Amino acid sequence: MRISWRRVNCRTGACRLIQPLTKNYYMRKSICVVLVLILCTPLVFSQKDNSLTSKEKKKGWVLLFDGKTTNGWTTPGGKPVSQAWEIKDGSLSVKKESKAGDIITVGEYSNFELSVDYKIEPGCNSGIKYFYTRYTNGGNLGMEYQIIDDQLGEDNKKDNHLCGSFYDVIPPVEAQKKVNAPGQWNTIRIVAKDKKVEHWLNGKKILEFTRGSKEYMDAVALSKFSKTVPAFGMVEKGHILLQEHGGAVAFKNIKIITL
Fold first, then answer.
1. Which of 8, 21, 217, 229 has the most CB atoms around its CB within 10 Å?
2. For every residue of 79-124, which 3-state class applies, written as one string?
3. What's the pLDDT tens digit per position in 6-36?
4. Residues 35 and 102 in one domain
5. Is residue 1 one of the residues assigned to a domain?
6. Where are the beta strands (DSSP E) in the chain?
7. Which CA distances in Å does 84 have to 157, 164, 248?
8. What is the pTM assigned to this prediction?
């Protein structure tokens, strides 16, 4: 390409030759702008913790934790949430051996999809219970999505006690499971529609079962919940429970939608 030069007079009377801007210059500048936009887009449009997108709001999702308070939560006995449940950096957490106690949602749910992010420390054992309610025989109980460090957790000797299991009843499909290491966030989804239940972990379905089916009732009969009345897990609705079981665990982005 032929480049033309032009003469520019300076105040001093001296002069110099400068090269005009070329097409290549503008092309390089355009590429740089595009690269900057591509790199910055995830930062600009990434969803903030403990918030709902306009699409989620339109569908009917509701936040169960606002990232700042324990509004909407109580103890199973109806008391205020203990201060041992710490709200820090947008997460709701308990320290190891805090004796903070379990907490439950004020509301009860029947058909729902629940999404929760959690993070544990090595060796932790915790869980999320759903359909938590008082049984005629058995006391206050809920079906538990087990959260545990599969490698270092003390209660890791049975396959239906491993992370993602329906605790003490049905194990997850280990081949489908990908758990991020302690110290990293994981995302849980629990879907309950009529009698069908699904457990998801980090975008993968790791367990599904139908409450009341022969396979389900056989598994319950072999569990520690075999004597409950009504049959374990066969209630119509219940609270969501975050378990404090002596381990250090944190929760955030807790949201639910009624199906």
1. 217
2. CCCCCCCEEECCEEEECCCCCCCCEEECCCECCEEEEEEEEECCCC
3. 555 545 555 555 455 555 655 665 555 445 4
4. no
5. no
6. 6-9, 15-18, 62-63, 73-74, 86-88, 91-94, 103-105, 112-120, 125-135, 139-148, 186-193, 196-201, 204-210, 239-242, 249-258
7. 30, 26, 11
8. 0.83
- CA–CA separation, 110 vs 258, rounded Å? 8
Residue 149 structural domain = 54-258
The answer on 12 and 127 residing in a single domain is no
* Domain contains 91: yes
CA–CA separation, 222 vs 157, rounded Å? 16
Question: 119 and 12: one domain?
Answer: no
Place of tokens 């280990």: 174
What distance in Å separates the CA atoms of residue 33 and residue 214, rounded to the nearest whole number?
62
- Tens-place pLDDT, residues 116-137: 999 999 999 999 999 999 999 9
Q: What per-residue string of b and e applies to 140-159 under the rule 16 or more CB within 10 Å gives b?
A: bbbbbbbbbbeeebeebeee
At 81-130, the pLDDT tens digits run: 999 999 999 999 999 988 999 999 999 999 999 999 999 999 999 999 99
Query: What residue type is 221 in one-letter code?
Result: A
Lowest mean pLDDT across 39-53, 95-109, 153-167: 39-53
> Are residue 23 and residue 118 in the same domain, yes or no?
no
